[in-house]
Specification:
The protein is of the alpha+beta class. The chain is about 45% helix and about 15% strand. The strands form 5 sheets. Strands 5-6-7-9-8 form a 5-stranded mixed beta sheet. A 3-stranded mixed beta sheet has the order 1-2-12, sandwiched between helices. A two-stranded antiparallel ribbon has the order 3-4. The longest helix is centred in the middle third of the chain and has 26 residues.
């Protein structure tokens, strides 16, 4: 990585990658010099397993180390919840497969066993039998008869009906189906609803409960499974102590209560106590009270995310997946990022959205770079690299939000990757050199503005209701697209240069190059040939890139070129492209503000879902030659308490495991609560 003048402070930060849920540029060049830590552990199927360090842990005092340890333990105790949420048979399947891994003493050199182990690792990686990203069922590359032999030889029981499901490409084929023609619920295997419950029933159930005039609505359905009652009606089985997932939640509460005793300050302690109360009662008003307190608790070195949070896995957008991340603040980096947060109102005032959709007062936006100390649930092994919470719009408007970028995670991603994709898909040496010089900085700024400015901008008209009510299954893709567009629009604004955030607008050009390359081509490597795009972030990226490409054809803003039988997309006019980004931002904000479902549906379906099959095949052929796995996930460090004779903790040490299989088996031995 080339160095800029010292006042361009962003370069001392890790190279942050696009989007709060997925990274954009896999082609970034990593600097490995002077670092003997082995970041890349192994690679199989479409996955690479990475390790990460915890910078700054040794600088914490004992109470802070205890706090991090307790919070990490609380997260791991709920690990089984995510598995069960993802699919009703997942825990049964995992226990059977792990028993085989532990006890089988037959031939482990034959191809079937090797493929069996790849299959097991893929399931571990995805917290279940459906791919973590595409949500398609992971199909075994060995015969059913071989699994039956393994079950017999290890005295492992697994219902024959479940065995049949594993090898059936049709039964429970998608964890999350977003194609309305197949039924959003009936076509999804996610375990948030009893299998026979329909969308119409869910809509009717919440129509009787949700008051659109309520300016502080609770997050209905966030912490429950919808079930069929004996009388045929539907109701909710709440995830709480004494309720569904009770045994695991009791263990979570145990560690959270210990964490509260070593909290760094009173607001942090109060937030932890409210989180415990929420887990005990399942009361969604308590959840809101917790989020307000947590959002306003901004002092201290340690923070965390814990509970049922993101609703991406629910095709109806109500139910939250279990997730935990434990964070140590990088104070130097975060203080520098304050420049962007302090200017949030300027960006809102100068956005391309309609004046009536702008916030008069953008409040409480905080942005920090943090180092992860541990993750579990939906955040592990595959993790976001940035998070913006809480999700409730009214809390964000009245109390603000917290945006964090996971610095050591991004650093590990970069150090485990290479430059092959950049060289393959960039058209010119100019693009390649620009990416090498400005790619880290551009990604950094894109992520920061996506999280701090993007998710915090715009307002919904009164009486419209929440986006999940009005925009339904398209809400997530549209929101991620809106946040991306805010970042893209301002990346070519001289204001960033004036603030000292970037040295020149070449940074914006680099991000535009990469976004178009990824949105129209590179991300297709994550799909099987013939598949539509289902995942919300991928839909958002293609929707934006394809829309501006189509709308800019008359002016040749983006040109499709062919060379040596390969396709490239080349930007000819960056200013006109910026204007197109601004036009689309204005329209998506209008859609969200007015709850215009049909317009949102048309944008996603017309630009974000369907894939050019010839182009897709070309991408897959080109990527296959690179032998680079498109997805990465992590082995977590292990925190080990050191105690005296009385059992009092005197220190907490960090160990860095290097074997994915051993960690997964250890987790199952230690944290199996369901």
């Amino acid at each position: 990585m080339k160095r800029f003048k010292q006042y361009f402070w962003v370069l001392v930060l890790p190279a942050l990658i696009f989007s709060c849920q997925q990274h954009q540029h896999d082609e970034q060049v990593a600097n490995h010099e002077g670092d003997n830590f082995n970041y890349l552990s192994e690679q199989f199927a479409d996955l690479k397993i990475i390790r990460y360090k915890i910078p700054g842990f040794d600088h914490l005092n004992l109470k802070q180390k205890e706090l991090v340890y307790y919070l990490t333990q609380a997260g791991l105790e709920g690990r089984d919840i995510m598995w069960d949420q993802n699919y009703r048979h997942n825990l049964t399947i995992r226990k059977a497969l792990e028993n085989i891994v532990r006890t089988y003493d037959g031939d482990k050199e034959n191809e079937n066993w090797k493929q069996f182990m790849v299959y097991v690792k893929r399931i571990w990686f995805s917290n279940g039998i459906h791919h973590h990203y595409s949500s398609s069922k992971i199909m075994p590359d060995f015969p059913k008869e071989y699994l039956q032999e393994l079950l017999t030889e290890t005295n492992t029981e697994l219902d024959p009906e479940i065995v049949d499901i594993l090898f059936d490409p049709v039964k429970d084929a998608k964890k999350v189906n977003l194609d309305p023609s197949k039924g959003l619920l009936l076509g999804s295997a996610i375990n948030f609803y009893d299998p026979d419950i329909t969308e119409a029933e869910v809509d009717a159930y919440y129509a009787d409960r949700i008051n659109k005039e309520d300016k502080t609505p609770v997050s209905y359905g966030l912490n429950s499974k919808m079930v069929r009652n004996e009388d045929g009606s539907i109701g909710e089985s709440v995830w709480k102590v004494g309720g569904m997932y009770g045994p695991a939640i009791e263990k979570i509460v145990y560690w959270l209560e210990k964490a509260a005793t070593v909290a760094e300050n009173e607001p942090q302690q109060k937030a932890l106590e409210l989180l415990v109360e929420y887990y005990k009662t399942g009361d969604l008003k308590t959840w809101d009270a917790y989020n307000v307190t947590w959002t306003e608790a901004t002092d201290g070195d340690v923070d965390y995310i814990n509970s049922f949070i993101e609703v991406y896995n629910d095709p109806k957008g109500y139910r939250g997946s279990y997730e935990t991340i434990v964070e140590i603040n990088d104070f130097d980096a975060s203080a520098r990022m304050k420049v962007l947060a302090d200017n949030a109102q300027w960006f809102e005032d100068n956005s391309s959205i309609m004046d009536e959709h702008k916030k008069a007062n953008v409040v409480g936006v905080t942005y920090k770079v943090v180092n992860v100390a541990g993750e579990a649930g939906d955040a592990s092994p595959s993790t976001p690299i940035g998070v913006n919470l809480p999700n409730a719009n009214w809390i964000r408007a009245a109390h603000g939000s917290k945006s964090v970028s996971l610095g050591n995670i991004v650093d590990a991603y970069n150090k485990a990757s290479g430059s092959g994709l950049l060289d393959e898909f960039a058209y010119s040496e100019e693009e390649i050199e620009r990416a090498k010089e400005y790619g880290d900085l551009g990604d950094n700024m894109h992520t920061a503005m996506h999280e701090v400015i993007g998710h915090a901008s715009g307002k919904i008209n009164e009486g419209i209701g929440t986006p999940k009510e009005t925009l339904k299954n398209y809400a997530s893709a549209l929101e991620e697209g809106r946040a991306d567009l805010v970042a893209l629009y301002f990346l070519m604004d001289q204001k960033l240069v004036e603030l000292g955030l970037i040295p020149n607008l070449e940074v914006g050009k680099e991000e535009y190059d990469g976004y178009i390359r990824n949105g129209l081509m590179m991300q297709l490597r994550r799909l099987k040939l013939g598949d539509d795009i289902e995942e919300a972030h991928m839909r958002n990226r293609q929707m934006i890139a394809k829309w501006v490409y189509e709308k800019g054809k008359a002016d040749n803003v983006i040109e499709r070129k062919e060379r040596d039988g390969k396709t490239y997309f080349v930007i000819n006019d960056y200013e006109k492209l910026r204007d197109l980004f601004g036009q689309l931002l204005r329209e998506i904000q209008r859609i969200k503000s007015e709850g215009d479902y049909e317009a949102g549906k048309n944008l996603i379906e017309n630009y974000g879902v369907k894939v050019d099959q010839d182009l897709h095949k070309e991408v897959l052929d080109r990527v296959a030659k690179l032998k680079s796995a498109p997805y990465g996930g992590f082995i977590n460090p292990k925190l080990v308490p050191i105690t005296d004779e009385d059992g009092t903790i005197t220190d907490v040490k960090v160990e860095y495991p290097d074997d994915f299989t051993q960690q997964m088996l250890y987790y199952s031995d230690t944290y199996s609560n369901l």
